[in-house]
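subagent[fold] <- orchestrator: predict structure for attached chain, return C-alpha coordinates only, no commentary.
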Amino acid sequence: MNFAAIEMNSVIALLTVLLVLLVLYKGIKVVPQSNVFVVGRFGRYTKTLNAGLNFIVPFLDRIAHRISILERQLPEFKISVITRDNVEVQLESTVFFRVTDAASSVYRIQDINRALHTASESIIRSAAGKLELDELQSSRESMNSEIAHNLKEAAIVWGIDITRTEITDVIIDDQTKEAQRQQLNAERERRAVIARAEGEKRAVELAAEAKLFEAQKEADAIKVKADADAYAVKVKAGADAEQTRVVAAAITDNGQPAIEFEIMKRQVNALSEIAAAENAKTIILPTDVTGVLGAIEVFSENIRK
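subagent[fold] -> orchestrator:
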Protein backbone atom coordinates (compact mmCIF):
# COMPACT_ATOMS: atom_id res chain seq x y z
CA MET A 1 0.00 0.00 0.00
CA ASN A 2 2.79 2.39 0.86
CA PHE A 3 4.64 1.47 -2.31
CA ALA A 4 1.57 2.25 -4.44
CA ALA A 5 1.15 5.62 -2.72
CA ILE A 6 4.78 6.48 -3.29
CA GLU A 7 4.50 5.53 -6.92
CA MET A 8 1.35 7.64 -7.31
CA ASN A 9 3.06 10.63 -5.71
CA SER A 10 6.01 10.21 -8.03
CA VAL A 11 3.74 10.20 -11.08
CA ILE A 12 1.91 13.30 -9.85
CA ALA A 13 5.21 15.08 -9.23
CA LEU A 14 6.48 14.13 -12.64
CA LEU A 15 3.26 15.33 -14.25
CA THR A 16 3.52 18.56 -12.29
CA VAL A 17 7.07 19.14 -13.48
CA LEU A 18 6.06 18.39 -17.02
CA LEU A 19 3.13 20.77 -16.72
CA VAL A 20 5.36 23.50 -15.35
CA LEU A 21 7.83 22.95 -18.15
CA LEU A 22 5.03 23.05 -20.69
CA VAL A 23 3.64 26.26 -19.17
CA LEU A 24 7.09 27.84 -19.27
CA TYR A 25 7.57 26.69 -22.83
CA LYS A 26 4.21 28.13 -23.85
CA GLY A 27 4.57 31.33 -21.82
CA ILE A 28 8.17 32.32 -22.52
CA LYS A 29 9.16 33.39 -26.02
CA VAL A 30 12.60 34.44 -27.15
CA VAL A 31 12.43 36.63 -30.27
CA PRO A 32 15.60 36.67 -32.43
CA GLN A 33 17.20 39.96 -33.42
CA SER A 34 15.74 41.65 -36.56
CA ASN A 35 12.45 39.78 -36.05
CA VAL A 36 9.11 40.46 -34.39
CA PHE A 37 6.34 38.03 -33.43
CA VAL A 38 2.66 38.84 -33.86
CA VAL A 39 0.61 37.32 -31.01
CA GLY A 40 -3.03 36.33 -31.41
CA ARG A 41 -5.63 35.17 -28.89
CA PHE A 42 -8.63 33.25 -30.13
CA GLY A 43 -7.85 34.46 -33.68
CA ARG A 44 -7.58 38.12 -32.70
CA TYR A 45 -4.46 40.31 -32.62
CA THR A 46 -3.16 40.87 -29.10
CA LYS A 47 0.33 42.34 -29.22
CA THR A 48 3.68 42.36 -30.99
CA LEU A 49 6.77 40.83 -29.39
CA ASN A 50 10.07 42.59 -30.09
CA ALA A 51 13.55 41.04 -30.03
CA GLY A 52 14.53 39.52 -26.69
CA LEU A 53 12.78 37.65 -23.88
CA ASN A 54 8.97 37.98 -23.84
CA PHE A 55 6.06 36.45 -21.90
CA ILE A 56 2.61 35.47 -23.14
CA VAL A 57 -0.40 33.77 -21.61
CA PRO A 58 0.12 30.04 -22.03
CA PHE A 59 -2.47 28.06 -23.98
CA LEU A 60 -4.43 31.28 -24.70
CA ASP A 61 -1.93 33.32 -26.70
CA ARG A 62 -0.08 31.93 -29.68
CA ILE A 63 2.49 33.19 -32.16
CA ALA A 64 0.42 33.90 -35.24
CA HIS A 65 3.15 35.36 -37.47
CA ARG A 66 6.91 35.66 -37.44
CA ILE A 67 7.92 38.79 -39.35
CA SER A 68 11.39 39.88 -40.42
CA ILE A 69 12.00 43.63 -40.08
CA LEU A 70 15.14 43.61 -42.23
CA GLU A 71 15.15 45.77 -45.34
CA ARG A 72 13.85 43.88 -48.35
CA GLN A 73 14.03 44.36 -52.10
CA LEU A 74 11.36 43.65 -54.65
CA PRO A 75 12.56 41.67 -57.66
CA GLU A 76 13.42 44.00 -60.55
CA PHE A 77 10.45 44.60 -62.83
CA LYS A 78 9.90 46.38 -66.15
CA ILE A 79 7.21 48.98 -66.73
CA SER A 80 6.13 50.37 -70.10
CA VAL A 81 5.61 54.16 -69.84
CA ILE A 82 4.88 57.03 -72.24
CA THR A 83 6.82 60.23 -71.71
CA ARG A 84 5.45 63.75 -72.07
CA ASP A 85 6.79 63.95 -75.65
CA ASN A 86 4.87 60.72 -76.55
CA VAL A 87 7.84 58.34 -76.60
CA GLU A 88 7.19 54.82 -75.30
CA VAL A 89 10.02 53.42 -73.22
CA GLN A 90 10.49 50.66 -70.68
CA LEU A 91 11.76 51.42 -67.19
CA GLU A 92 13.50 48.73 -65.18
CA SER A 93 12.81 49.41 -61.50
CA THR A 94 13.09 48.02 -58.02
CA VAL A 95 11.84 49.02 -54.56
CA PHE A 96 13.52 48.71 -51.17
CA PHE A 97 11.31 48.56 -48.07
CA ARG A 98 11.09 47.35 -44.50
CA VAL A 99 8.27 46.40 -42.12
CA THR A 100 7.61 48.97 -39.37
CA ASP A 101 4.20 47.74 -38.17
CA ALA A 102 4.07 43.95 -38.22
CA ALA A 103 0.39 43.75 -37.31
CA SER A 104 -0.67 45.99 -40.22
CA SER A 105 1.58 44.10 -42.62
CA VAL A 106 -0.23 40.81 -41.92
CA TYR A 107 -3.75 41.91 -41.07
CA ARG A 108 -4.28 44.73 -43.61
CA ILE A 109 -2.71 43.25 -46.73
CA GLN A 110 -2.37 39.68 -47.91
CA ASP A 111 0.58 39.91 -50.33
CA ILE A 112 2.92 42.81 -49.60
CA ASN A 113 5.20 42.24 -52.59
CA ARG A 114 2.34 42.18 -55.07
CA ALA A 115 0.71 45.23 -53.50
CA LEU A 116 3.95 47.23 -53.66
CA HIS A 117 4.54 46.10 -57.25
CA THR A 118 1.09 47.32 -58.32
CA ALA A 119 1.39 50.63 -56.48
CA SER A 120 4.89 51.17 -57.87
CA GLU A 121 3.76 50.69 -61.46
CA SER A 122 1.04 53.31 -61.11
CA ILE A 123 3.27 55.87 -59.38
CA ILE A 124 6.21 55.34 -61.78
CA ARG A 125 3.96 55.78 -64.83
CA SER A 126 2.58 58.98 -63.37
CA ALA A 127 6.05 60.35 -62.59
CA ALA A 128 7.53 59.39 -65.98
CA GLY A 129 4.58 60.89 -67.85
CA LYS A 130 5.54 64.35 -66.54
CA LEU A 131 8.99 64.22 -68.14
CA GLU A 132 10.30 64.24 -71.68
CA LEU A 133 12.65 61.50 -72.83
CA ASP A 134 15.82 63.56 -72.33
CA GLU A 135 14.67 64.62 -68.87
CA LEU A 136 13.81 61.02 -68.03
CA GLN A 137 17.36 59.93 -68.75
CA SER A 138 19.05 62.82 -66.96
CA SER A 139 16.71 63.23 -63.97
CA ARG A 140 16.61 59.75 -62.48
CA GLU A 141 17.59 60.95 -59.02
CA SER A 142 14.77 63.47 -58.75
CA MET A 143 12.29 60.97 -60.20
CA ASN A 144 13.45 58.29 -57.73
CA SER A 145 12.83 60.72 -54.86
CA GLU A 146 9.35 61.56 -56.15
CA ILE A 147 8.43 57.89 -56.59
CA ALA A 148 9.74 56.99 -53.11
CA HIS A 149 7.78 59.84 -51.52
CA ASN A 150 4.48 58.96 -53.21
CA LEU A 151 4.93 55.23 -52.66
CA LYS A 152 5.75 55.79 -48.99
CA GLU A 153 2.44 57.61 -48.49
CA ALA A 154 0.57 54.76 -50.18
CA ALA A 155 2.33 51.99 -48.20
CA ILE A 156 2.13 53.52 -44.73
CA VAL A 157 -1.30 51.95 -44.12
CA TRP A 158 0.27 48.53 -44.66
CA GLY A 159 2.89 49.10 -41.97
CA ILE A 160 5.60 49.42 -44.64
CA ASP A 161 8.36 52.02 -44.86
CA ILE A 162 9.76 52.62 -48.37
CA THR A 163 13.46 53.24 -47.92
CA ARG A 164 14.24 54.00 -51.56
CA THR A 165 13.31 53.25 -55.15
CA GLU A 166 15.66 52.83 -58.09
CA ILE A 167 15.17 53.24 -61.84
CA THR A 168 17.98 50.91 -62.84
CA ASP A 169 17.64 51.23 -66.61
CA VAL A 170 15.79 53.08 -69.36
CA ILE A 171 15.18 50.73 -72.30
CA ILE A 172 14.57 52.44 -75.68
CA ASP A 173 13.71 50.80 -78.99
CA ASP A 174 16.04 50.97 -82.00
CA GLN A 175 14.05 53.62 -83.88
CA THR A 176 14.12 55.97 -80.92
CA LYS A 177 17.84 55.33 -80.46
CA GLU A 178 18.47 56.24 -84.11
CA ALA A 179 16.42 59.42 -83.76
CA GLN A 180 18.36 60.30 -80.63
CA ARG A 181 21.64 59.64 -82.44
CA GLN A 182 20.65 61.99 -85.28
CA GLN A 183 19.53 64.61 -82.79
CA LEU A 184 22.82 64.26 -80.94
CA ASN A 185 24.82 64.68 -84.16
CA ALA A 186 22.79 67.76 -85.07
CA GLU A 187 23.37 69.20 -81.61
CA ARG A 188 27.11 68.55 -81.89
CA GLU A 189 27.21 70.28 -85.29
CA ARG A 190 25.27 73.23 -83.90
CA ARG A 191 27.70 73.56 -81.02
CA ALA A 192 30.65 73.33 -83.41
CA VAL A 193 29.21 76.10 -85.60
CA ILE A 194 28.64 78.25 -82.54
CA ALA A 195 32.16 77.55 -81.31
CA ARG A 196 33.65 78.51 -84.68
CA ALA A 197 31.55 81.68 -84.83
CA GLU A 198 32.58 82.63 -81.32
CA GLY A 199 36.23 81.97 -82.20
CA GLU A 200 36.03 84.18 -85.28
CA LYS A 201 34.27 86.88 -83.29
CA ARG A 202 36.95 86.73 -80.64
CA ALA A 203 39.67 86.95 -83.30
CA VAL A 204 38.06 90.08 -84.77
CA GLU A 205 37.74 91.57 -81.29
CA LEU A 206 41.41 90.86 -80.54
CA ALA A 207 42.49 92.37 -83.90
CA ALA A 208 40.43 95.48 -83.21
CA GLU A 209 41.87 95.72 -79.72
CA ALA A 210 45.40 95.39 -81.16
CA LYS A 211 44.76 98.19 -83.67
CA LEU A 212 43.27 100.36 -80.96
CA PHE A 213 46.27 99.69 -78.73
CA GLU A 214 48.65 100.53 -81.59
CA ALA A 215 46.77 103.77 -82.30
CA GLN A 216 46.86 104.69 -78.62
CA LYS A 217 50.61 104.05 -78.45
CA GLU A 218 51.20 106.10 -81.61
CA ALA A 219 49.12 108.92 -80.16
CA ASP A 220 51.13 108.69 -76.93
CA ALA A 221 54.36 108.83 -78.94
CA ILE A 222 53.16 111.87 -80.87
CA LYS A 223 52.16 113.54 -77.63
CA VAL A 224 55.56 112.79 -76.07
CA LYS A 225 57.35 114.17 -79.15
CA ALA A 226 55.17 117.25 -79.13
CA ASP A 227 55.92 117.79 -75.44
CA ALA A 228 59.63 117.34 -76.14
CA ASP A 229 59.52 119.81 -79.05
CA ALA A 230 57.58 122.27 -76.96
CA TYR A 231 60.10 121.91 -74.16
CA ALA A 232 62.97 122.40 -76.62
CA VAL A 233 61.32 125.53 -77.99
CA LYS A 234 60.79 126.76 -74.46
CA VAL A 235 64.42 126.11 -73.53
CA LYS A 236 65.66 127.76 -76.73
CA ALA A 237 63.39 130.72 -76.17
CA GLY A 238 64.73 131.02 -72.63
CA ALA A 239 68.29 130.82 -73.91
CA ASP A 240 67.59 133.46 -76.58
CA ALA A 241 65.93 135.64 -73.99
CA GLU A 242 68.93 135.27 -71.70
CA GLN A 243 71.27 136.04 -74.59
CA THR A 244 69.24 139.08 -75.49
CA ARG A 245 69.32 140.21 -71.89
CA VAL A 246 73.09 139.80 -71.73
CA VAL A 247 73.55 141.66 -75.00
CA ALA A 248 71.22 144.36 -73.83
CA ALA A 249 73.20 144.65 -70.62
CA ALA A 250 76.44 144.83 -72.60
CA ILE A 251 74.96 147.50 -74.84
CA THR A 252 73.91 149.44 -71.81
CA ASP A 253 77.40 149.17 -70.32
CA ASN A 254 79.54 149.71 -73.46
CA GLY A 255 77.25 151.38 -75.90
CA GLN A 256 77.90 151.32 -79.62
CA PRO A 257 81.11 149.24 -79.54
CA ALA A 258 79.15 146.35 -77.99
CA ILE A 259 76.59 146.52 -80.77
CA GLU A 260 79.23 146.47 -83.46
CA PHE A 261 80.95 143.58 -81.70
CA GLU A 262 77.77 141.48 -81.69
CA ILE A 263 77.17 142.20 -85.36
CA MET A 264 80.70 141.27 -86.33
CA LYS A 265 80.54 138.08 -84.22
CA ARG A 266 77.42 136.96 -86.01
CA GLN A 267 79.04 137.63 -89.37
CA VAL A 268 81.97 135.42 -88.37
CA ASN A 269 79.62 132.64 -87.22
CA ALA A 270 77.76 132.79 -90.49
CA LEU A 271 80.99 132.48 -92.42
CA SER A 272 82.00 129.50 -90.30
CA GLU A 273 78.72 127.73 -91.05
CA ILE A 274 79.16 128.35 -94.78
CA ALA A 275 82.66 126.97 -94.69
CA ALA A 276 81.55 123.86 -92.76
CA ALA A 277 78.83 122.98 -95.27
CA GLU A 278 79.49 119.73 -97.24
CA ASN A 279 78.50 121.24 -100.58
CA ALA A 280 80.71 124.27 -100.08
CA LYS A 281 83.47 124.00 -102.72
CA THR A 282 84.48 127.63 -103.18
CA ILE A 283 83.88 130.47 -100.74
CA ILE A 284 84.01 134.06 -101.94
CA LEU A 285 84.62 136.47 -99.11
CA PRO A 286 83.92 140.20 -99.30
CA THR A 287 86.92 142.49 -99.16
CA ASP A 288 85.93 143.89 -95.83
CA VAL A 289 86.04 140.54 -94.06
CA THR A 290 89.64 140.94 -92.97
CA GLY A 291 88.72 144.31 -91.70
CA VAL A 292 85.93 142.80 -89.76
CA LEU A 293 88.21 140.27 -88.25
CA GLY A 294 90.72 142.87 -87.36
CA ALA A 295 88.11 145.05 -85.84
CA ILE A 296 86.90 142.13 -83.74
CA GLU A 297 90.43 141.54 -82.47
CA VAL A 298 90.88 145.21 -81.60
CA PHE A 299 87.47 145.34 -79.94
CA SER A 300 88.26 142.28 -77.89
CA GLU A 301 91.51 143.81 -76.69
CA ASN A 302 89.70 146.97 -75.72
CA ILE A 303 87.12 145.05 -73.76
CA ARG A 304 89.80 143.14 -71.88
CA LYS A 305 91.49 146.39 -71.02
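orchestrator: received. Logging for downstream: The first helix runs from residue 2 to 27. The chain has eight helices and nine strands.
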